[in-house]
Amino acid sequence: MTNKFTYGIKPLQEALTTDASGIDKIYLRDGISSHQINKITASASDHRIPVVRVPESKLIDLVGNVNHQGVVASVSEISYQDFETWLHKFDPTPGKAVLCLDEIEDPHNLGAILRTAAAAGISAVIVPKHRQAPVNATVMKTSAGTAGRIPIVRAVNLNQAILTLKENKFWIAGLDQTADTAVWDQTFDVPMAFVIGNEGRGMRKKTSEHCDFLLSLPMYNGVESLNASVSAALICYEWRRQQVAGS
């Protein structure tokens, strides 16, 4: 995957407001400081975008001798699909499933999830617009180049997207280690949306409340939980196993 760059204070502020998940990294010229720069760094922190201080020569290497105002951002060229546009074209029939990622922050986890989703035949991966790891070079490397093989669908509000999925024949299953029902004890014979929670916090409470049912992965030997990407892989392949067994 290649990256493009945006530069200048106002263009970067606009990008942070409208498409922060597409920003990979922000480069600031050494010594630059202002109220606007402070706002940029604060917003970057909110969106978990790395900010690095570099010499003027590095900025010139990135974008050439332009009026960059001491600010350059590396922006991923991955193409997201709009949620409403994708759903309008999608036919939610039994035997189809999607993943909904509830604020996955680690790009390595995201890359591994995208690879598994593609391999298991998942129809799409739905991500929130904010507080979600962007699809950057790390994600692409971890996914071994498979990230573009199925749609990556971006929703402004994940909870609202889940409610819309429910209105369009999907059943929503959330992974929750406190759930009484194991993943392999649930039948998946309807269009499914599987919700994978944040690496540390799990699913948000409101997101959990929107699920039709919650499923767990039984743990043994004192192990409390699994990595988010491993959990996603297990539920994806249990879903796939059932589709093959039922065909």
Give a description of the structure.
This protein has 247 residues and is an alpha/beta fold. It folds into 2 domains: 3-76, Ribosomal protein L30/S12 (60s Ribosomal Protein L30, Chain: A, 2-Layer Sandwich), CATH 3.30.1330.30; 81-246, SPOUT methyltransferase, trefoil knot domain (Alpha/beta knot), CATH 3.40.1280. Helices cover 37% and strands 21% of the residues. The protein is built from 9 helices and 11 strands. The protein has helices at residues 9-18, 35-46, 56-63, 83-89, 107-120, 137-142, 158-167, 205-210, 228-246; strands spanning 3-7, 23-29, 51-54, 71-76, 81-82, 97-101, 124-128, 152-155, 171-175, 192-196, 213-215. The chain has a 7-stranded parallel β-sheet with strand order 5-8-7-6-10-9-11, with helices on both faces. It has a 4-stranded mixed β-sheet with strand order 1-4-2-3. Helix 2 links the parallel strand 2 (23-29) and strand 3. Helix 1 runs parallel beside helix 2. The model has no long low-confidence stretch (mean pLDDT 90).
Strand content: 15-25%
Order of helices and strands: EHEHEHEEHEHEHEHEEHEH
Poorly predicted regions: none
Q: CATH homologous superfamily name of the largest domain?
A: SPOUT methyltransferase, trefoil knot domain
What radius of gyration results from the CA coordinates?
A: 20 Å
Helix content: 25-40%
Question: How many structural domains in the coordinates?
Answer: 2
CATH topology value of the largest domain: Alpha/beta knot
Give me the count of strands: 11
The top-level CATH class of the largest domain is: Alpha Beta
> Judging from the principal axes of the Cα atoms, what is the shape?
elongated
Helix/strand structural class = alpha/beta
How much is the average pLDDT? 90
